Give the backbone structure.
Amino acid sequence: MATVQIIRPTSFKDYVAQIEELQSMTKMPLWFRGCGNARDELLPVVYRRAHGRPVYGQHLERQIITRFRQRSMPFLDRGLGDDEWGTFFLMQHHEIPTRLLDLTENPFIALYFSVMDVKVIGTRRRARYGSDACVWALDPVKWNRQALSNQSYRGGILAPDNDEIRAYKPGGDFSGIHPVCIYGSHNSRRIVAQRGVFAVFGKGNTSMERLHGKRPFTNSCLVKVIINRRFIRRIKDSLLRSGITESTVFPDLIGLAREIRRDFGYGGL
């Protein structure tokens, strides 16, 4: 059975070296996801456990999509048209629950989300990080070939118009078994800035790291980079000095406001 490899960088320089080493072992670019808590699962929010949350299914998904399409028009520069997948990607990047899991092609964007999203506990004078952070590194081509091995799939990263993606269609029966890696529409500035890509889940609600330990995922295609809480501050400072800041990741007034708050001492650690 495949096990997830774990690496533990202690500095920004070490992180860069570790990522370069991982990238050198595959012919295709890796994808990444940053988590502010190293215990977070690779699972869309709609499938995460929560008291009182309705069971997510085809009917509920259609209702959410319909509501978004009905009410989003005044806030969009152009209409949604009939692009179901484009609507789905736009929903995800505006924090509406979907079966999509955000990833990025940029390891520094993933690192930003990991070190910036760590929960800070305690008073301001004695504040500390409440958990380790992590960055997941995923080989999307190898993952797709294993996830779709029942179809003898030998292609690469999927796009919404691929035949193999029909079983994951927004508002459909999402009968696909395992999550697969897909390119999305770059229909928002945030998706462009964050080099956003996605894993789309089907009927299964098992996290990607748990699937990785089961068949057909017999070859390693997932690595976990754990950022120990002791090193978060120094790695975060190095990352921000390198130009990966709030206004870079969120190219709008919200991102600029967050950056100004931090620059003038109104942010967290």
In short: The first strand starts at residue 5 and ends at 7. The chain has ten helices and nine strands.
